[in-house]
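hey team, just a heads up i'm posting the complex here instead of the shared drive bc the drive is being weird again. everything in one block, sequence lines first with there labels, then the predicted structure for the whole assembly after. its three chains so it's a bit long, scroll down
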Amino acid sequence: MSGHEFQSFFPESGEVDMTDTTTSIDEATMAELRELAGRYPQARSALLPMLHLVQSVDGRISPAGIEACADVLGISTAQVSGVATFYTMYRRRPGGKHHVGVCTTALCAVMGGDTLLEKVSAKLGIEPDETTADGTFSLERIECNAACDFAPVMMVNWEFMDNMTPGKADRLIDDLAVGKDVASTRGATITSWREAERVLAGFPDGRADEGPSAGEASLLGKSIADANGWAAPKPEDAK
Amino acid sequence: MTDTLTPVLSAQWGAEKSWTLKAYTATGGYEAVGTALKLAPAEVTDLVKESGLRGRGGAGFPTGMKWSFVPKDNPNPTYLVVNADESEPGTCKDMPLLLASPHTLVEGMIIASYAINCHIAFVYIRGEVLHVIRRMQQAVEQAYKAGHLGTNIHGSGYDLDIIVHAGAGAYICGEETALLDSLEGRRGQPRLRPPFPAVAGLYASPTVINNVETIASVPSIVRNGSSWFGSMGTEKSKGMTIYSLSGHVNRPGQFEAPLGITLRELLDLSGGVRAGHQLKFWTPGGSSTPILTGDHLDVPLDYEGMAGAGSMLGTKALQVFDETTSVVRTTLRWIEFYKHESCGKCTPCREGNWWLVQLLKKFEAGQAVDGDVDKLLDICDGIGGKSFCALADGAVACVTSAVRHFRAEFEDGYKTAAWELFPYGASALFPVESPDRSLSLTKGAHA
Amino acid sequence: MSVVTKADQVAQVETIGVTIDGIEVQVPKGTLAIRAAEMIGIAIPRFCDHPLLDPVGACRQCLVEVPDMGNGRGMPKPQASCTLECAPGMQIRTQLTSPVAAKSQKGMLEFLLINHPLDCPICDKGGECPLQNQALSNGASESRYEGVKRTFPKPVPISAQILLDRERCVLCARCTRFSEQISGDPFIALVERGALQQVGRYADDPYNSYFSGNVVQICPVGALTSAAYRFQSRPFDLVSTEVTCEHCASGCHLRADQRHFQIKRRLAAEAPDVNEEWNCDKGRFAFVSARGEDRMTRPLIREDGMLRIASWPEAIDAAVAGLAAAGSSSGVLTGGRLTMEDAYGYSKFARAVLGTNSIDFRSRPTGTDEAAFLATRVAGRRLGDGVTYADLEKAGHVVLVGFEPEDESPLVFLRLRKAVRKSHLLVTAIAAFATAGTTKLNATLVATAPGGEAEALAGLELAPGNVILVGERAALAAGALAAAADLADASGAKLAWVPRRAGDRGAIEAGCLPGLLPGGRPLADATARVDVASAWELESLPAEPGLEAAAMLASAASGELKALVVAGIEPSDFADAAAVRAGLEAAGFVVALENRLSEVTERADVVFPVALIEEHAGTFLNWEHRAGRVNTVVRQANAPMTDLRVLAALADGLGKPLGIRTARNALAEIVELGTWDAPATKARATRKAAARKAAKAASTSSTDGDVTVKLSTWRQLIDGGRGQDGEEAMAATARESVARVSPALAGQLGVADGEELTLSCGAGWYTLPVAITPGMAEGTVWVPTNSPGTPLGELGVVFGDDVALSVGGGE
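-- predicted structure starts here --
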């Protein structure tokens, strides 16, 4: 890898994968899609959640999923396709059971994110945007995930994996691979990417109470204030 | 004189199960709703106006004034949309707030909605933060059960529904009009203004869009009064706010302080730049705010102070880089971010960032040629101020400020690769096996 | 956001003063800076801007400097003039006076070009390309870009007709905005993001829009091309002529481009009052039908039962002999391809040369009260007497009766849609079901089985200024035309009859109806006859009423009518194709004037090849009664004799000179004749008499199928019409032929969506897949009138007839 290629030919861009037309969308899914559409003052607002639901059912944005969304919302398949290809969380190919993201935006990259990505990629034997042959892992080079005080950061199924090191990443992959319970540093026990997508669609999984209230870095200012006896003014003092 | 740090929003983040309704009400949560609902909506808006609260999402627009722009005679319903699409590189304040204290936002939304006569409010949360979304979904559900949401809230006759909405991966949706298009189930591309969202926003109806921290600040203002809020901060930058310190510092984290604190003070509190290293450059409010250097350590971190230093307060995301860091590499990676996140609607952003990435790669590899720095600046001149929205202005700010402060380092790119001048292992937090390699990956998201 | 100026407000529109490059100009409030600059001749370069599309501000090519917004303060950044509304006192500096604007524009052009291929020499747009023009006039001669250009597989067929070369695209979004805003067919959309953003469609749903060709025309680069024209010519080798479309009564002005005496393409011309800058795919692409082997170039005469090639004098002599023998026991059947001048020639030929009033242009199903309606409500009008496109925009409420605008008059559809989007027009459709077209008009459906139109109309309340549009098949619904006229009279609403074919309105004015002389003069009125006779320098005109088309054919079949002169008809277009064939076969003598071999020429005794529409001049009157010029595009014709010249030659041979040989002569006579000023009371009495007449009795020709229902039908825009022959790519974008029934009827029949349904009547059967259509009127089936290979005329049933339905294929 010279690291300096610049991709400029895009043979597969422009649409979802039409070669795989399998789907698990059934009447129950259709009912849930319609339920989502009914939650908003205007049904089309539900399109992003609906596409999350399609991913949770089909493991990708499937042609059947696009058609289902278009049917439910009364818009064209081209319009759904335009939305599905705009947002990076929507996948054209089946995601793994676990979707691993490594942040390589400037700050994480500089602090070791590039190395993490290289190592995870080598360990899984896949490049970003690919899925392992056994379907356990997919890998993504992600952009800033709003956890910079925990850099370098990884995500598994969109759960925070803070303050990562190559060693931690190695263990994380090993544990996930053998199905051990893995807890997010600021989140719940890892379930699966598809289950996560279902929550994003708007169907809670009851795990909100898992995990801590905050990470150490989040509490740093408060703990320094406490140590110094600092606090916001009392309302009566301000008058 | 207020204390150096003034935790208000973050005061209860460490409490046992702080995210629950029980924990929140234990410290007076939802009392401000009761107070606000006894006032006339206009009085609530006036209170927020008097407090001097300005938007915490980057632009710093006075919040009360924004609310007052909602036309009273528009026949369409009014909507409140909370922007929780926190994606600006370096920015990491709203996610911990929602994770630890989602009810603060719910309470703020109730008060704000009441003030602008809104009955359906939305929280648009970026999709890549599963647990934040779980906590917010649960908080809203609990608030309904407790009678803080739904019909006849607190017996006031006021009705409000809140919809928690997950995005799907697009930085541009932090731009308020792009967020509205996204929330309408479209591609998140910015809209023409006028009409402004206050007149024709969501569903072409009057809409107020505020950042999480802005709305979360409202309950404390209602509870403690506008003068309490104004007693913190500076004359034009009032109140407390959350500063996020990250990068090459000993102890990164969140610091809630009155507006106007300096980076030197924050570094002192957090143990300074990592041992054995010196500050090289930093961003005051995310990657879209022009970088500053050690010369600016004592500039107040408020709207005016940062503007005076040629930058912007932005999201108060202080990313600190030490002397091991190649500014060329960092700039490239930021521009790769903007190229990846450009929505594609307008020419300068779409094509300009595509070009800048390729040119910056040549600088990083030491393959730029004499004159390329001027070309870089000229390309930036062709982008900056000419794009449809501010995304590209932010991108350009990275490059122009980096060249302004470190022109020689860019000129080194005519001869020497950045990884030779700044072995990349040195800036990582852990040993790197191939420290002298560029790791600008080619596949995946950066296509 | 859009700027709407209703026509009736123009007079009172508020103007403001702005200064552009130092020149003061008064512009209507709400004018965009780019338009204001145009008004004083300053062209600001642009790609995404299009005056008929909502502003988008995407390409940023049109940046200008605004040193003063009108309030003394300048704008800190350059502004996109295509989205900048002028404000009073605003100062605008374009590239002509502002270095900032000039550099911004130059920079933008550079950005647009870095990923643009250098393939102008093989690009269809080369030579007429806004990007190429900009690059040549304002671009740098050398690129500073040393990177890699984006490339994609190419071309992508986004439909059978429209091809996309993505690397050429500048992402102006004109095509996607057109498809969504103007035609309401968002089957193309921007997909992907950032540098990868591109125009896309969903692979299984091609961009099959009736208006898809417009996106090729408005594409400011060569990204969108048509299969029909791709690699056919260079723009600078083409010779352009403005013409009026011959396909329907919308009356689109087109630009026909020919090279080597062959039309290579047709484009929508700019005609703000008519088609604005749009047209439909049929008008754009269907112009090659006469390029097949059936195109005739030499006359034919029948000898020993066989047609053989003959010389012109020989054929003329033969025709004259046959017609002379028949005398006034002749009839003239004209069809849709004729211009008003041609139609006038036939009308005059019938009455002044043959001495008969048996002439009828309606080579289609007709209703009994239709002729009276046409005489009193349509004929003898001028543009402005009735309804215009502009009237539709300010109508407030438009009612459609027996008229499916998207299929039958697509530019009326586009104008209605514009009014729905921009001026809150309400549309009510009295139809069997909510079509794709009426759905795009947000129309309120009054679900009406054929025959129920009059009752549905009676239930409507309209206001003055509202508009009722009746289509030609309304004549087949009992009392519908009269009910529409009554409603218009009672409410003050305007009424317009929208025929389907381009020549229909002109044929009426020319007098191609048995009871109507030119200019709307009633044959029954002696003054009218004298009027025309004196203009034609005749002692008198025949006064005996003539026969309508079907009666002529029946009369020919029975031997009463001895000769027929036929031009431009197809048997299957009539209510009963078999009866037409029988009439032609039994007629003693048939003269056919035609472009191509046809079922008529097969049965004719003498056949004259006549010039194609692009080979001669004339006029079409559109539905508004607006005259549109048909100009000669191709001047080197294989068969240069026009209908008029052939008729004149025959008249000469018959010893009664026609007096006109060219379209110019004919038009001069038409103008001189003018229109008939009938006393109002008289017209009203005639109309009332017509309304009292019993409408066509519903035929009960059903056979022993499962369920008997009413037939609703019309012609889809792209169908089996012969004028569309040869344009395969367009044909591939046609809508699927389906039989529509309501869910209840489907249940009764026991048929599921997509299964086969057979429609039968005495004359035959017709099998189509079913489309179950919610909200459809009960007791009704809809099928297309002329799906390729199966014109309904072959079944002998028309709109409103009873037909039998049974599940499964026919035997």
